[in-house]
Write a structure and sequence with these properties.
Order of helices and strands: EEEEEEEEEEEEEEEEEEEEEEEEEEEE
Largest sheet: 5 strands, mixed
Number of domains: 2
Number of strands: 28
Helix content: under 10%
Strand content: over 45%
Shape: elongated
CATH topology of the largest domain: Neuraminidase
CATH class of the largest domain: Mainly Beta
CATH superfamily of the largest domain: Kelch-type beta propeller
Number of helices: 0
CATH architecture of the largest domain: 6 Propeller
Length: 286
């Protein structure tokens, strides 16, 4: 029964519910802050374990770890420190943090100077983390082969040369693509990465390539029509440009080229004019 006096109602401090036109309306009150992030519970190796590489070189796959919480979900923004534990090598980018996928990756791992086992540890910040630190193992070898990144363009009858610690692959052929190629691709051993450079003006296979004073000289070869070439073209890696030089005295294919004291020498091969394999030696002064 109402006697005219107001009636006081006490509502819960967190949530008050109203019903307007039969539709529930919730008004949130109080302190509803977001749930705290999950703490890291486990660190595990994600990539880069049990590799082999020549002594003093960088392993092909950079070590990476994954950090997860108790439910197995990734934990971002966790500090991880990569450090050499044995073998005398080195790492770059050793202090890093996990990304949104919970993964942290070292910059590079270079093995030590002696054959044998090398190890690197990855330590996540925090306590009570299972598997912490994670340990990576690699074997440094001598007189051994290792697999590196493949050329972007598969081919044969190409030529290769080195300038300033970069490997250049020039020309060649791949009948499954367009036949004879003018393609030039460069490989950086320090990063295990290939990049495409300016193509040769003349597509050819069976050419010779040599370097003089930091310039690559592409010499002779055979074009797509089967014509043997005397063409000489020079590539400057610093500007990524080609220029045409004086042609060889005779067109040749499948011969060898080298440089001695700034002179380019073309040796042997198949001579179209003689229609035979030859022992011809000619020299070019750039």
């Amino acid at each position: 029964m109402h006697n005219g006096a107001s009636t006081a109602h006490v509502f819960p401090p967190a949530v008050t519910a109203f019903r307007l036109a039969g539709i529930p309306l919730l008004i949130a009150c109080g302190n509803n802050s977001a749930a705290p992030p999950e703490l890291p519970a486990e660190i595990s190796i994600q990539a880069g374990n049990n590799q082999q590489a020549p002594i003093g070189t960088t392993v092909a796959i950079a070590p990476a770890v994954a950090v997860s919480d108790q439910s197995g979900s990734p934990v971002p923004n966790i500090s991880v420190t990569f450090a050499v534990a044995s073998g005398g090598g080195s790492v770059t980018g050793g202090n890093t943090t996990t990304n949104t996928s919970g993964v942290a990756t070292v910059g590079r791992w270079t093995l030590g100077p002696l054959p044998g086992t090398n190890t690197v540890t990855a330590t996540a910040s925090g306590s009570g983390i299972a598997g912490n630190p994670a340990t990576f193992t690699a074997t440094g070898c001598s007189n051994c082969w290792t697999t590196k990144a493949s050329m972007p363009t598969a081919r044969w009858l190409l030529a290769t040369e080195e300038v300033s610690n970069i490997l250049y692959a020039l020309g060649g052929a791949n009948p499954n693509i367009i036949g004879v190629l003018a393609t030039v691709e460069a490989y950086d051993p320090s990063t295990n990465i290939w990049t495409t450079k300016a193509s040769m003006p003349t597509a050819r296979q069976g050419l010779a390539v040599t370097a003089i004073n930091g310039i690559l000289y592409a010499v002779g070869g055979e074009d797509a029509a089967g014509n043997l070439l005397a063409t000489v073209e020079a590539y400057d890696p610093s500007t990524n440009t080609w220029t045409t030089k004086a042609s060889m005295l005779t067109a040749r294919y499948a011969f060898a080229g080298t440089a001695i004291n700034g002179m380019l020498y073309a040796v042997g091969g198949f001579d179209d004019a003689a229609v035979s394999i030859v022992g011809t030696l000619t020299a070019y002064q750039p």
